[in-house]
Amino acid sequence: MLTKRQQDTLNFIRHYIEENDEAPLVTEIAEGLGIKSQGTTHRYIQALIDGGYLERLSGRTRGLQLTELEGADQSLILPMMGKIAAGRLIEAVADESEIDLGIMFKGKGRYVLKISGESMIGKGIMPGDYVVIESTRQARHGDMIVALVDGFDATLKTMLVNQDGTITLMPANDEFEPVTIDAKRLSIQGVVVGQLRTYP
After folding, report:
1. Alpha carbon distance 18, 152 (integer Å)
2. What is the distance between the alpha carbons of residues 110 and 175, in angstroms, rounded to a whole number?
3. What integer pLDDT is reported at residue 62 of this predicted model?
4. What pLDDT was estimated at residue 71?
């Protein structure tokens, strides 16, 4: 259970990320909440990290990330009306069950990133899409990962483990070149476990 000030801090961070597509600095959080002490602000942030609401990415100035889906504490249930073909025309058969999107995407250590750029369009991930990430430091050959290179540059790519121990970060767009690096330069931040897209 969060205290009022911890909840205010979480709400401010969430709103800031929504508005700016990046996390706020500690000084910006303190200013936004009217807190004079950065030490107090740090304590609120650490309480949110300890409670599983936030994660701090090492080596990044704006390294705070939400580990919750927006509104994940509320069930988002839509009717499941059955199956429909994306190939030849067949009759759509009604099912009339329900699907809880909150349960589908929610999980410990999961958070959402908004996609910028076109390097993964071959995997169906378009600019403006949201990907659901499961925070982990380990991944398997062929996983789509959030990669931090040299502790600074973050990117979303498919990870290929080469026989010589190097790692290739593979885009899904012929206009982008694969990047092969020494495994020591790579820090895995998470693995893609879902994708969200809305249409106007």
Report:
1. 22
2. 30
3. 87
4. 44
Taking 50 as the threshold, does the pLDDT of residue 48 lie above it? yes
The residues assigned a catalytic role are 119, 157
What's the predicted TM-score (pTM) here?
0.56
Residues 151, 58: contact at Cβ < 8 Å?
yes
Q: Is the pLDDT of residue 56 over 50?
A: yes
Q: Which two tokens stand for residue 164?
A: 């010589």
- Percent of the chain with pLDDT strictly greater than 90: 39
Which residue ranges form the domains of the chain, and what is each CATH number?
4-66 (1.10.10.10), 71-105 (no CATH), 110-196 (2.10.109.10)
Polymer length in residues for the chain? 200
38-50 vs 26-33: helix crossing angle, rounded to 10 = 100
Q: Which of 195, 123, 114, 118 is nearest to 159 (CA)?
A: 123
